[in-house]
Amino acid sequence: MSTTETTGATPGDADVLGASRATMDADALVDGAVARIAPTWPLDRFIAVNPFWGFVDRPMREVAATLASLSGARLLMPRSFYRDALRKGMFVDADLRAAVVRSSADVSVAQLLALLEREEPMTPPRAKVTDVADLQRDLERQMSWRDFVTNAVSQHCASYFDDGQAQLGPDRTGGLYASWRRHAQGDRAPTLLMGLDGYGAAAEALPDTARELLYVALGDLEVPESERERYLVALLLDVNGWAAWCAYRRWTARLGGADDDAIVDLLAVRLAWEWLLHRTGGPALSRRWKLAMGGWPSADAAARAARPDDWLFQDALELAWREDVCARLPSGLSTARPEGAAVQAVFCIDVRSEVLRRALEAQSQAVQTLGFAGFFGLPVDYRPVGSESARPQLPGLLAPRMRVTDAGLDDPAATRRQGRLSTARAWGAFKGGAVSTFSFVESLGPLYAASMLASTLGHRADARVDAAALSRKEEEGRKPRLAEPDDVEARCDLAAGILRAMSLTRGFARLVALIGHGSDTTNNPHAAGLDCGACCGQTGEVNARAAAALLNEPAVREGLAVRGILVPKTTRFVAGLHNTTTDEVTLFDLDELPSSHISDVSQLHGWLVAAGATCRAERARHLGLSRAEPAGLLAAVRRRARDWSEVRPEWGLANNAAFIVAPREHCRHLDLGGRSFLHEYRFEEDEGFAILELIMTAPMVVTHWINLQYYASTVDNPRYGSGNKVLHNVVGGHLGVFEGNGGDLRIGLPMQSLHDGERWVHTPLRLCVFIEAPREAIDGVLAKHAHVRSLVDNAWLHLVQIDAAERALYAYEGGRWTPTR
Q1: Are 83 and 112 in contact (CB under 8 A)?
Q2: Residue partners of 794: CB distance under 8 A and separation at least 6
Q3: Higher pLDDT, 168 or 614
Q4: Domain boundaries in the chain?
């Protein structure tokens, strides 16, 4: 699939946005602009996304200059960060020298060091009509038009897209633009609050449809045809949070074979404000607007010239980290494949699993661990018992093709749960109702004092979503199982595909554990962001349990044998869940294991308990708990998980930097510090390199999304992060958050997920992907998939080939492979 197929964007000629599109028809112009906006998932399905996904068809450095010009965005850290990194030895002069050589830059290391001592220049972005209108206002005493318009658009979007949080909402007939147009024509705020004369008449003249408005406004504003797409993208970036939400609606609609035009409506709403201000601003504003448009090329040139050499600091930082791994990795490349494992534990590729896998392997040489995407190859959605809706349990790149439901519970249990959930919803509506709120607090508030105190002191019980409205007995009887497909051949094909993709087709242990992961936090709107991204922001429990049950089915075992995968009768699969907040592991469905495997499970449980203690000790220093004793440390992390005032219950995937695709024994000797995604892969067993292609087009893209989400939220949190979580207010039930009570919808990660209050915990490095496979095979995947090649060629990630036979590593740079230093 090409980048154009993935994003709808068309590569430009003159620059990132293609100034040569003057002859493009208007519909294509609009569609090209909206395709530049990456989606953001809702809070209850929050997954990390590269917010620059719509721009990956162009080099990252060019995109940085374009976004700086259009919105003032930043894709690099301040020079003070790189000065500090140099002082701490995170990179040295030799790394800078190597970065210069790789880039062919005409600059010396001495000049770079001198540059590092100067503050970076500030370059204002292109002006919009709102900016021109603000030139006529006293901004020390009056609200700016920029803020007013952002709030006006944002508040209407929050009301329009609300999913049950608000008691009342606007008329949604005709879509977002039509809804806003009706509201705008009766809105008195622009006149009363902002003093905008003539607003009422201008609002009455708004065109009927979004696309009509777009065509009319661009003409009336006299935006040059060659600049129109850039201008439209700049307007979307002004309300980037809501633009990303609308892009998500379009993304998911298209995955299902439909479409959604909300992002076009949003663009029309934002452009309509430009048109309204221009129409009512008089000749003076019109003259200033023409002058502002004439200054756009100068703003572009200033952005391009502002920090070209600063990328060498970023390159040096990344080179230093990459070369450290490259220096340590080869010593394990001659390690033989392990045989006779007592247990094989398959973990998600998540960086937090690296710490637990290392600790578990340290318990015994009889332990073998593997890495695989945490949805365990099941392209499913999950419909919990008693629920009328299903949720996706797979990467956001994919659409569900199968379904998991809860077995083990009868129809009366489902009916009871439906009743309890309905009662809970009604009670929630009563507590939050505009009329009942005060009477609730006065009459029943004191009864909630104990619950609030327990929450404050961190003594709340665990709250698993899937267990909501179930009794303890019902929860213990709930067994997520694959309901579709029910055809035996299809189930056998699925099972064979799973085992081949995780490179586990022979040498099975008596016990194979599929261990998903999930977090355990309280009062955290971004909790799903700590769960499994491969499961669409849910825990991996459902997938692990369904996959383990599938692989234990007798009919599936027979079908696997026909397909050349001989799983011994003595091998049993068991599911588990790694709580990444406390590093405890829960094993499921042990009642279904034969008595012959009780001692195996007991041994695994003991190893997991010891490994969890090792993990907690390793993580303690990052959580400010390094002085706690082992038993006290477990209690401390449990308190953090249940304390509703804790803003940093865990660090999630902070500091992620690498993705290693190779046999585990070749990197088992490395302490990767919880910074690397790990995927099991044996190219010798991959006929036609189909598994390699799958890894490079799915898990590699997912890890890149995670990496760039953390990167963007760090380098420019005001635009690509969600700010201070202490100030967060949830919008629309689950859509996202405001920081405070207004402004744009905030996307990305909060500061508390990246910074400990004194220093950055996440170091923004572009992902370095290490793949043990023939270079020709990797080249073949790049040649076949343009969007993957764009990530590499345009420096959105780094690619290194591992050659185990030579015990050497080769970096992909400038379209060719060169030995690493």
Answers
A1: no
A2: 56, 57, 58, 59, 60
A3: 614
A4: 1-75+127-309, 79-119+310-339+653-821, 340-414+441-651
Q: Which residue has the higher pLDDT, 427 or 87?
A: 87
Residues 384 and 215: their CA atoms lie apart, in Å, by 47
Give the tens place of pLDDT for each residue, 775-812: 999 999 999 999 999 999 999 999 999 999 999 999 99
**Burial track 142-151 (b if 16+ CB lie within 10 A, e otherwise):** eeebeebbbb
Question: Contact 170/156 with Cβ under 8 angstroms?
Answer: yes
Contact 533, 395 (CB under 8 A): yes
CA-closest candidate to residue 7, choices 40, 49, 38: 38
Q: What does the CA dihedral 296, 300, 305, 310 come to, rounded to 10 degrees?
A: 130
Residue 423, pLDDT above cutoff 60: no
Compute the mean pLDDT over every residue in the chain, rounded to the nearest whole number.
91
DSSP SS3 for 382:
strand
**479, two tokens:** 């067994």
pLDDT at 755: 97
Residues with Cβ within 8 Å of 429's Cβ and at least 6 positions away in sequence, in order, are: none
- Report pLDDT digits (tens) over 677-698: 999 999 999 999 999 999 999 9
CB 633 within 8 A of CB 623: no
Question: pLDDT grade, residue 438 (50/70/90)?
Answer: very low
| pTM, to two decimals | 0.92
The one-letter amino acid code at 535 reads C
Length of the chain: 821
- What string of DSSP letters covers 544-613? HHHHHHHHH-HHHHHHHHHTT----TT-EEEEEEEETTTTEEEEE-GGGS-GGGHHHHHHHHHHHHHHHH
Joined together, the tokens standing for residue 97 give 């020298």
Is 186 exposed, middle or buried, given 0-12, 13-18 or 19+ CB atoms closer than 10 A?
Answer: exposed
Bond preceding residue 699 cis, omega within 30 of 0: no
Among residues of the chain, what percentage have pLDDT more than 90? Answer: 82
Give the integer Cα–Cα distance in Å for 389 and 384.
Answer: 8
